[in-house]
Specification:
By secondary structure, this protein is mostly helical. It has 21 helices and 6 strands. It is globular and about 95 Å long.
Amino acid sequence: MNTRPSQEKYNILLDGDNTEQKEIPPTLYAQGQWILAIGASFFERHFGFMMHYDAKFGKDSYGHVARLYPERVYAMHRDLKKLAEGGWKEDPNFAAYRMTVAKFPEAADGFNDEIIDGGRAFFANAERVFFDNFKSQFTKHVASCVRIPNPPPKVAPNTARLLPYMIGGHPDLAREFASWLFAAEEHGEGVDACDDGGVYDGFQHQFGKKEIVLDHNEGDLPPIKIKTDECMEYLTSGVDPFEILKIPLIAENKTLLWRIATVSPDATAVDIFDDKTWTVGHDGSKDDFVTLLDEVHKRIAPHCTHGQGVENHVQAAGFVRKTNVGEERGSHRGTANSYISRRFNMITVLKLKAKKSTKEEKDKIQRPWGSTRITYFSDFVNKFSRTVEEAAKNMDEVKRNELYAFIGSEQSRQSTKDKKELVNKVKTGVKKKRNVTKSEFVGGVELTAEMDGGIYFSILTKKNGHEEHVDAEIVERKIESKLSKPLAEEAIGKKLELLKKEALLEKLEANRAAPGDKPPNCIIPRSAKMKSLFPKQRELRAERNAKK
């Protein structure tokens, strides 16, 4: 990216010979405004959700929001899609960025020097590239945790992903998810749902249309409203329900899930966390969803989508080393703090709150104090000691002694492992050839091929129909004489070798490469024919990224 450090001035022609000087803001300033706007409009809220606690599981569940993750992924997908399709141009968070970019000189076309000099064309390209990469990385690293449409053979199947966690999420979405699975089972296993090419094209199911508000414990932030049909169509696209039906979490709880699925769309959906919504059977007895609720607590709640809970314990690592004790004693203190102090505070607060009758009185209790703390702590430690003794008795004596010996040895220390890894890393590093880094080069801005700063050699193939573009570039550069045969008769491989040499020579002349470097993977086009490939290159790169 361009990092012009200070304001510059340029002349614009008014009429005749009259000109007016205007100041160009630093391009780095505009780039910073863009990043701030992305954070305010998208990243900060969704990332904050990952770190928050789940209101159903209590305030010690920071980061444990996996049951809500599938529906949140849809909300993120929808918000990102809206921004990428031009929504950012109306978003007030981008107002400062839009005002700054408006001060840059306007390019005459998409391939002139204004791209290199950081004009409006540069930023128009940067905006496109940013969203293309953002969407690609979101699909690859975020959405793929929930499901992958038609996963390739060597990729983990959707049965190993988080889509089934929806049974513990929003009641209306849980009903739609259960209804989708119920309809698939009723339809019959083994139904051919593949297209002519043998690719699974989805079990056809009509989802209920309803606007709902996601309860994601976000305080005063504006509520997130979504439509159930659009959410479910996105989450189940390319997912085989017959595979999901085999997952133990689903297969072992079908009776209760089918009760959730068959509740009328006009009736209140079953909320497994609220027994007032539990359905009544034909015999008048109320369904008991405790079994399903236990499954959510045992299989879904422990799954941490963000290591916020871990980070809380990492802070404790500094606390237990305050008196400059060694690694071993500090580790034992950390264990005691995690197993005793943290659990004692949490459990005791719950017990003390249970003795109060009003919400105001309960909210005042944050931790035990005075004699109450001593009394409760004594009882807690006694119970904890009995638990440890029972665990030790039930353990094989030989294995127990081996464990004790390992805990007290050098091999158990993290510092020993870190030291070995560092030694191996240094050994490997000294054998490697040192490459000159980008920051050591001079010559100003270098645009990557993704920013329309070059054409990748990998797309210049006969199969893609690009040999004529290669020929046009060679003619434009007047280097036909360097070929061993006439241009029309020479193999495309030889032509590309010549262009690669030219591309490396250009980098050497611009001090962007060092003698002995390999040819770059792209070339800066000079011919209009080669420049016309930029749109096609974007399409090919997008297709390639989608397959990763």
